[in-house]
Records
---
Amino acid sequence: MQDLGNYPHIRQSAIRSLFEIFEQSSEGTIIVDRDAHIVWMNERYAQRFGLQRASEAIGRPCESVIPGSLLRDVVKSGRPILLDMMDTPREPLVVMRLPIHDDAGQVIGAIGFALFDELQSLSPLLARYQSMQQELASTRSQLKSRQAKYSFAQFIGTSPRSLEVKRLARRSATSDSAVLLLGETGTGKELLAHAIHNASPRASKPFVSLNTAAIPETLLEAEFFGTAPGAFTGADRKGRAGKLQIAHGGTLFLDEIGDMPLPLQSKLLRVLQEKEFEPVGSNEVLRSDVRLIAATSIDLEAAVRKGTFRADLYYRLNVLTIAVPPLRERLEDLPALCEAIFDALQGRHELHPEAMALLGRHAWPGNVRELHNVLERACLLSDETLLDRATVAAAIGTLQALPEAQRAAADDGQIEDFHQARAGFERELIRKALAITAGDVPQAAQRLGLGRSTLYRKMLELGLQS
Ligand SMILES: Nc1ncnc2c1ncn2[C@@H]1O[C@H](COP(=O)(O)OP(=O)(O)OP(=O)(O)O)[C@@H](O)[C@H]1O
């Protein structure tokens, strides 16, 4: 019989028994040194993590064998993690991690036990854990779908007008005031709204869009403010969060704000002034913390004069106003835009200079969106990678000639010779590029998306001097 008065001996025996019990009844045991490198691991545990033999794990950092292992934290902090859940490729494990001390009390490693057998008794807890994991995954994916898609790098254009737009938009990203984006359809207002949000301190929070023109007036208020439980029958019985609530902490992008019905304009003004709102059918006042970016393609000042847009809301929105110019006013951007669109279409298409010249004569009422559609159609129409003028003309359909081109044709009652027209377009484009870059040919070539030698050759042909 053991001497019960021999306490150090009993302690040693208790430690040994404890280790053996844990080692035998657990799904796995692992020991690491002070660098969190594996010193020992049992065979069962090694197999769970895809190793043939436990010896293959020896000397490796613990995370390279067990992704998500926290043994390194235990070694570093010297503090145990008595009960924790750890995800594995199979089911999650209940684990316990303890530091190992030497006689002087220094941490020399850590030991981890996976208490797999305990899972049965922990099944209610486990079910809750798994449902929380699922909720987390679905919230993450919702958040992802509400993240802004574009950044400033995707707003293509180096014309002075485009650079000014980007400069203003970048500057607005640092402020929390409302932004008003004005411009024709397809000019990139939504793209800019995404980019502003992405560059703002709210970037990690939701970006939520609401197109005022696309939703029937009767549903707009519920969509905007949400509904209280019991306010409606059917699917909305339980109540629904509105865009204002979903965007909380982030950015709300209101597209086509010029089409917003007057009663909703008043309510929006209240949200902007008082930073609170009530869901439809509720008396509860909710706080709103959203940064507003609004866009419209209509003339808001004219709408104010007509009485279809509230003047006070207009003044409230008209703080940081960015006018996005139509494509026809920044034709220098055409080559770079075409290149970006071809890249996005993942073909290896290019434009014949005559085709490019034709693009420069169209008025582009649908702006960049129309350019994208025309180039996509041209790629589908052509068997060649080099798209010629005829293909591009077919893709454009009815050419809406630019006013200057119309005037030029009307002046002498004749259609300009094609080659002369092309040379004229190229000369003008190159002149502009050289003016912007103060005569720096390599830089102008880069902006035009041309090789340096090609630009020199063209300048020579067109009689232009750098
Ligand atoms: N400067 C640009 N560079 C690259 N792509 C652009 C640019 N401007 C617009 N686009 C692209 O053109 C398309 C239309 O842009 P966007 O939806 O942002 O325009 P919009 O002004 O919001 O139009 P709408 O008023 O019709 O909603 C998008 O595919 C966008 O990525």
---
Amino acid sequence: MKEQQLTRVVLMDPSEDPDDILRANRSREKTFVFDMVFDSTATQEEVYVSTTKSLIEGVISGYNATIFAYGPTGTGKTYTMLGTDSEPGIYSRALEDLFKGLEATAEEMDYTVSMSYLEDQLNLLFRSKDLVQVSNQPVISYPQIYNEVIRDLLNPSSGFLDLREDSRGSIQIVGITEVSTTNAQEITQLLVRGNKRRTQEPTAANRASSRSHAVLQVTVTQRSLRKDTGIEETRIGKLFMVDLAGSERAAQTQNRGKRMKEGAHINRSLLALGNCINALSERGGSRAQFVNFRDSKLTRLLKDSLGGNSRTVMIAHISPASSSFEESQMTLIYAYRAKNIKTQVPEQTSPKEFGIKDLMRMVKCNLRNVSYHMDQYTGIIAELRGEIERLKARVENQEKEKSAAGPDLRVLQAERHQGSETPSSQAMNTLRAQLIGAFREQMEMCHSLMELENTNIELHVDTCRHLLTIADWEREKAWGARTEDMPAKEEKGQNTEEENREVDVIDSPEPHEVTVAREEINLLLAEQRRTAALKTELEQHLANAKEKASQMEEFFPRQITSEDQQEVLRLLCRAHELQLGNTELQANTLYRENLLCQKDFLIQQLQQNLLLCEEIIQQQHMLIKAQNIPVPETLARLHHLHLSELEEGVLHLLLLLHSVMSSMLRPHNTSSLDVSQHLDPNKDEIRKGLPGNTKDIPWGMKCDIPSITLESDSDSCRSSKMIPCRKKGSLETHLSPAFSGLPKSPVQQISNAKPWTPSSSNTDTACESHLHRASLFHQAKAASSTSIATKVRVPVSHHSEGTPLEVLPKSNGPASATQHSNADHIKGWVLQKQVKGPADGASSRQEPQRVTHLGSHTRSK
Ligand SMILES: Nc1ncnc2c1ncn2[C@@H]1O[C@H](COP(=O)(O)OP(=O)(O)OP(=O)(O)O)[C@@H](O)[C@H]1O
């Protein structure tokens, strides 16, 4: 790696041989430009001053700010954020500056500073020992299920905390400890203590590796009274400082067993963060996407920091060791995407004209005016006093009337109650307690089943995403092979840069994300099988519990003689039945949601396969024409039929109809879906198809291949763009058995699924895509509110195989050109989903899920 002018990182691929003449023209370097780059000699002070110091002023004025430390394990994230006693990190320095700034304004403003420190950790959803034995009910034992949980690092005894959205849409952590303080030292001490409670485990890359994301939130509230108007102003500035868990993949840390699973889950929340970053970085571009913050607790927590009202700095950490090349590349790509996130800037102004101060103005200030004037308050208070007097008088009158009427009713009631503590009422109480216990157990099981179904959906969506990543790579390879097979172009010497790159794709080793996807699929499938087994077991328990409860319902009323009490028991049972029925309906909806998601994925793959077949037919036709082979009449007729179906777009309309139906089937569908818009055959998108869709159809006809872009579709697993380059049979080859047949129940599918093995690469059948491939990155760089700093440190726990850090010759050329060429090599899939279960709130309303597939690179034909 080299560094120049402290803004560029040039990554050199250590695996490529410089003496390889076949690749002599190919650049081994990848350049990434950031706002700031630090090498291993940078001090904590320098890092703080260049990245964070300028944000503190904003927090004091009521703006939000966020600082992320991102990177693989052992690269120094915790060191940057927390530091050591002699070299304090960003936390202490930022807090010191914050208090200094606040003291300077103390004369005009009253201020309070409160802070909370939490970790977003992976933990066990159930443990056998968590289940308390109730009376003589059997104890249900569950194996461990991992889930994302939030823990208060300042008060770990408070257990796992829940996230809730308040009426203004801000995320609140229920029960978090907020410590008010007046000096930075106190906070630093609390932080050091809190950090010791953080989940740490040794990995091969770091002896004290943090296995959770730590979020320090400092809230500054300032109040001032404007003398001229008498209006009280409140400014609230929030500062988030986030030390993320390592972004490494399992192989890097040599994690096994629990650590490996943990890594996969940590990566899942980082993946969700990445998806949000991708979607946000596309905002304002031609392919604006929905940003799904609900994908993980981490992203929900950081919604404001990422999505809008915050100035955000990401400090990406990489190791200069050549052995960490892949991790470094992934980190830089991630950070580069984050850099594209833009604040909504006024349209008429050029982004270049903005300085830091202007950007700060674009972010909304959290200023609340107390809009009532003091005089109005006096009036309101007087009114309230009057109301109290009136009410007091009414109460007195009522008391007088009662005493005139006779003895106190309450006294009579108490007397009757005491007398009623007969043996029969005691028996009734016992029976009621037993019934309620049984009902409660059933409800808990129902909720656990819903949790499991939710986990199932998450796992399923994750698996789809990885399958898509692999499919994309396979298609790219097929594309490369096809280009190589095109003798005409070679003859003409038209080997453009684009084609060279395609040929490179076949030669190049499998990209990192594809390898990761293969690893993850096996993990996810194993977990799906485990979840399915658990579900079956739990369903069995629930059936037993229901049986037992219905026996109780029959038997208990016979033990009670009083009709009133019998009626109470009957009502109790009825209320419970309704409650249970409701929960079961919710669980059913979830299950159907999951099924739909699977169907959609299957349809998506079939669509791709359909287009591939289309391509094959066309090529075969060209071959028949070229060779002058006579066509039997039956075949010609069949072909005609095929063409007329395509022309009328029946298949396409059916697919659209399906997607519309699916989205309608979803309860509380939030997407504004216009059916008529979808089905209008005159609608441009449907009729026109995408660029290059018009194909020269055999037998001399021109036909539009219907577009399969279903942008407004709210289906769970929908690709916003599909590339019809799937090879014949690849559906079976690449999909897990769970997706390779017609939809079965998830439990069936999962229990049938065998461990997934990497598919052999089929490059024999290449085909041509007729859908556009949008570049993942936009060349145009608008004003970005997300500053990115990259920190390279000399590894402490790695041994460095020669440092690839070199100095670039000074170049004044535009950075964006280099970036764009790099971006061309980058591909990615983004999958977004929204899964909501009972744990997320009182309602188990399902949000629509989406899958968005980002194309890998532009391809000119
Ligand atoms: N710039 C630096 N100078 C000196 N020591 C450093 C520097 N950066 C990191 N270290 C040391 O390297 C080790 C690993 O760093 P640290 O724990 O901060 O990594 P991390 O990225 O937070 O890892 P993980 O994700 O596993 O928690 C620590 O002992 C830390 O003190």
---
Amino acid sequence: MGVRPQTDWTDEVMARAREDGWWRKGGSVVAAVSGGPDSMALLSLLKTMSEAMPLTIIVAHANHQFRGAESDAEAELVARVAQEWGMIFESIELGMPDYLEESGENLQSASRERRYAFLEEIARKHGCDFLVTGHHADDQAETVLMRMIRGTAVSGLAGIYPRRIVHGLERIRPLLRITKCELLEYCKRNGVPYAVDSSNADRHYFRNAVRHDLIPELERYNPRFKESLVRLAESAQADDDYMEHRAMEAFREGVRPSGQGFRLERRWFRGLHVALQRRLIKLILNCSSTPRQMLDFLRMEEIAKAMTQPLPTTIRLDLGDGWVLRREYEESYIGPEQSASMPFHFAYAVTLDVDELLIGETGGRFELRLHQGSVPGSTSNPNEALFDYGELAMPLTVRNRLPGDLMQPYGLNGTKKVQDMFVDAKVPRALRDFVPIVTDRDGRILWIPGLRRSGHALVTAATAFTLRIAYAEDRKQ
Ligand SMILES: Nc1ncnc2c1ncn2[C@@H]1O[C@H](COP(=O)(O)OP(=O)(O)OP(=O)(O)O)[C@@H](O)[C@H]1O
């Protein structure tokens, strides 16, 4: 990106500040100043602005104390400039090396977290509604590219937002469209002092490789590559904003709170565009009161699929941090496991198709074989059943019992409660949840191995294909 004449971009930044409402008469802002050229340029610009229209500027500096005397010198520089320019100065010594050793947290995220906590505290103390930082166009380009390399959904391409309210405080990044080069130029021309962070290379290793190696390489193919990344971020921000808005609407329309979790109907959810489905899941997952790790794109897809696909109708997915997705027929629940308040518990539900062999999970082993013509069955083997394949809605599902399960037993007119059949057959209560039940795609109970076959899909002389299902109980389970 070329260097624009200084007045061009400063005028632009100021016009925007006025429009966005944070540069107003008698207003006050907290300026986060590290002492580097970006935030010192920002501070100088704020000074110019306050001279044109009174604005209280609180300069806040966090000394991470990573670099001993160098860190202290930076803090002193910021303090001195703030004093010279007649601004309030606030600082904190974060003692990050000791803190990290004790907590074992990640250096960058812990530093950021503690720094922002301090900045928010200062804003509260001075009754400021705005926090201004020196993020610039190069930061934006690097952020977007880093996310692309690491893997991101579209929302990640939005990069750094120029305005965002966090914890009731609006974070403003007025320099997001201004390049590092322009800011350095500004500092030199206006005699703005700044510190150079000698440890940048170690602390932002990946960012530095992107900055010093990758971007220059890509600029050989497109000299305005950084600019295009900044534009990409801006267009992604607009799209993201819109989608977020739509997701909120959908949330209000079709998501019902249930305990500490949420319920939604399959039919309604399936009617949403897939893009909206994923957003909605994200929104629901974000609703948890405890911070949860965000799931990756593939996991989102898996969740959306589990909630929409016709089979299996009963699913339980572990979402991490104690959260689950439970799909029961037409309804799904997403939320903490303990407050799921399900009327029943699913141990398993697995689909079976012809020539499939199922071992484990169901507490036994199923084998499905297709035979041409009508195969006479031996009625004496309770662990084998034959069905007219043409009469079945495939694939089949093997699951544990559910309350209210009804079956139409072979040789009986009408239906019978599976519960009663267990009682009649004297199946011990403790084992009932583990008895496999074979249903077809329509949810009809076809067979309870060892117990009863249904009257559905009987093999007759007219049967073209016979499906033989054999079950062997796994005694170990
Ligand atoms: N030690 C500090 N004290 C006060 N403000 C700081 C400090 N370090 C950074 N900032 C503010 O944050 C801006 C961005 O800095 P930098 O890119 O180093 O941070 P980062 O760790 O990537 O932060 P972010 O989480 O805000 O993206 C700076 O321009 C400055 O406004």
---
Amino acid sequence: MPVSNYKDITYEVGANAVRITINRPEVFNAFRTQTVEELIDAFKRADEEKSVNAVIFGGAGDKAFCTGGDQKVHMSEDGLYGPRGLVGLPIEELQSAIRDCRKVVIARVQGFAIGGGNVFCTICDLTIASEKAQFGQVGPKVGSVDPGFGTAYLARLVGEKKAREIWFLCRRYKADEALAMGLINKVVPHDQLDAECETWAAEINALSPTAIAIAKRSFNADSENIRGLSYLGIAAVKGYYQSDESKEGVKAFNEKRKPDFKKFV
Ligand SMILES: CC(C)(COP(=O)(O)OP(=O)(O)OC[C@H]1O[C@@H](n2cnc3c(N)ncnc32)[C@H](O)[C@@H]1OP(=O)(O)O)[C@@H](O)C(=O)NCCC(=O)NCCSC(=O)CCC(=O)c1ccccc1C(=O)O
């Protein structure tokens, strides 16, 4: 797919990094099938980019990095997002593309990193956040769950107790709390976020690309079993998405009311 055909994202090659940006600020950079397809294409393209060692992955506008799956699109009869992948958008392929990309992927988080957006922060190699950023999971509140990297790998970053708290309470965490729990690498004043990301990318760009690629593969190897778990788990989520219990979560979010899950159990 040529870069000029991207509708939901932008792709730019800078001096120190490729910048991949979700460009759907009107829905807080939530993703739909098209967004995920374009992101897969972009991360594969970045993997081949010879001039830089890093990717800066962000979301357009000031409000959100990414708030996960687009809940307006998810209001479908069959409970799925569309025609591709296990749940109608190939999120499992995108998570793999980010991990398989030989560049250091830096999440640039200026606002909300919620749901699947929080999973992106978990998977990216590094995360740099503005002091205005907020992190959290909403899955069990809106009829969803990530049964792979968003849970099992999250526990490796923040520890089992904290990971369970994140999923079982669905609270929001400020940037300094995310830093303290090990979810992110650095918090900076809002207006210094881009400069900080660029500084990190420039440092990385001075290093050996092959050594970096081997180090990334080696880090990944130790948690590679989670990819298998993820594929099986997301296949199970497909069945859950088709249930009335899950559909109630999506409907309630869109109707701006509290969900009533108990009536479906
Ligand atoms: C981000 C919020 C906390 C912001 O709250 P607030 O400031 O009160 O603003 P709102 O009024 O709620 O939102 C403003 C505006 O934006 C729209 N919006 C926000 N997020 C979304 C979204 N994800 N989809 C569609 N639209 C969104 C909102 O509707 C408002 O628009 P109006 O037109 O003005 O009404 C809060 O908004 C929030 O919590 N958002 C998150 C919503 C959510 O449910 N996200 C999806 C979670 S589930 C998921 O991401 C799974 C996706 C997936 O593909 C997957 C599947 C299976 C396994 C794994 C995965 C995976 O890992 O991704």
